[in-house]
Specification:
It comes from Dyadobacter arcticus. InterPro entries: HTH_LacI (IPR000843), LacI/GalR-like_sensor (IPR046335), Lambda_DNA-bd_dom_sf (IPR010982), Peripla_BP_I (IPR028082). This is LacI family transcriptional regulator. Pfam families: LacI, Peripla_BP_3. By secondary structure, the protein is an alpha/beta fold. It folds into 3 domains: about 5-50, lambda repressor-like DNA-binding domains (434 Repressor (Amino-terminal Domain)), CATH 1.10.260.40; about 60-160 and about 300-330, 3-Layer(aba) Sandwich (Rossmann fold), CATH 3.40.50; about 165-295 and about 330-345, Rossmann fold. Helix content is about 45%, strand content about 15%. The chain has 14 helices and 12 strands. Strands 2-1-3-4-5-11 form a 6-stranded parallel beta sheet, with helices on both faces. Strand 3, helix 7 and strand 4 form a beta-alpha-beta unit. Helix 10 (about 230-240) crosses helix 11.
């Protein structure tokens, strides 16, 4: 059955289409009797507004573009769940793109979404992104953009992040409390916000416990754990140090699983020889061998808060400029990879 239109209602009631349109919008210009007649007929015929026509009329597509590094990452999939749960209830569709940590893909994704006239963007930066012109230019032209997780310092807008500093501080402090002193940090490219924040928390925990910070125990992985050869090289360099680490704090899911794979390949016992703590939302942390001690981020809530801020920018553009950065608390879950089975029981 074809959907009824405003023209059909006007023809059936022998009134103009403009009168029908204003009556459906509850305009004060239409007398109550006519308004009641139109509304009752529209309801009887199951009339529904055409969302495409409305978006063209209002210059709104009621859609939001989301650009993240990868959907397969459990953290980002939770982030998307949070975004969609709020967007759907507020009448917005979500269009998702993956950058795969490529700057070129990020730019291409951005350009495509803008060409499809999305009302705003939610972005977590690719690990290889150092030039932000594609976002700065769009914001100057009035497109609302909110960043989450991996955020740029140079752009002023709403940002939603986990408290990376505190999460790293707690993870490193935990390793120190278990007796570890040569704690290495395996992390992402230095220019990412999450890298500098997690590195700062790691460093402060060492200093607060009287352990000098040693740059040789820090390894930056440009591809963030995705490239096996890079993981093997980073771990190999750490193990080749005059005093190899007795613990490794990894800064992401990919780095955590990459590190565990290399250590197990080398038959290094965890945690007896090297303890491991990850900064992660990996869903199988408890099923790993040994189960992984991890800093957990509130990914679902981060997605929910970010999309709420974006829709606020979309629907109330006059309020732009009053931006905020929201820091959501992390939690540390202790398992066998850092303390051993026996210690965990006691």
């Amino acid at each position: 059955m074809e959907a009824i239109t405003i023209k059909d209602i006007a023809r059936a009631l022998n009134i103009s289409t403009s009168t029908v349109s204003r009556a459906l919008r509850n305009s004060y210009e239409i007398n109550p009797e006519t308004k009641k007649l139109v509304m009752e007929y529209a309801e009887k015929m199951n009339y529904r507004p055409n969302p495409i026509a409305l978006s063209l009329k209002d210059s709104k597509s009621k859609s939001i573009g989301v650009i993240i590094p990868e959907i397969a990452n459990h953290f980002f999939s939770q982030l998307i769940n949070g975004i969609e749960s709020i967007a759907y209830n507020l009448g917005y569709h979500v269009v998702i793109f993956q950058s795969h940590d490529s700057y070129e893909r990020e730019v291409a994704n951005t350009n495509y979404l803008v060409s499809r006239k999305v009302d705003g963007l939610l972005v977590s930066l690719a690990s290889l992104t150092t030039n932000l012109f594609h976002f700065q230019d769009l914001m100057e032209r009035g497109l609302p953009i909110v960043f989450l997780d991996r955020v740029p310092k140079e752009i002023e807008t709403h940002k939603v992040v986990a408290d990376n500093f505190d999460g790293s501080y707690q993870a490193t402090s935990h390793l120190i409390q278990t007796g570890k002193r040569r704690i290495a940090h395996l992390t992402s490219p230095i220019y990412l916000s999450i890298t500098t924040e997690r590195l700062a928390g790691y460093r402060k925990a060492l200093e607060d416990n009287g352990i000098p910070f040693d740059e040789s125990y820090v390894r930056y992985c440009i591809y963030g754990g995705k490239v096996v050869a890079e993981n093997e090289e980073a771990i190999g360099e750490l193990l080749a140090l005059p005093e190899p680490p007795d613990a490794i704090f990894t800064a992401s899911d990919r780095l955590t699983t990459g590190c565990l794979a290399v250590l197990q390949k080398r038959r290094i016992k965890i945690p007896e020889e090297i303890a491991i703590v990850g900064f992660t939302n990996i869903s199988v942390a408890e099923l790993l061998n040994p189960p992984l001690t991890a800093v957990v981020q509130p990914a679902l809530e981060m997605g929910q808060q970010a999309v709420e801020l974006l829709i606020r920018l979309i629907e109330h553009p006059q309020k732009k400029g009053d931006y905020e950065i929201r820091f959501l608390q992390t939690s540390l879950i202790t398992r066998e990879s850092s303390v051993g089975k026996q210690a965990l029981k006691t």
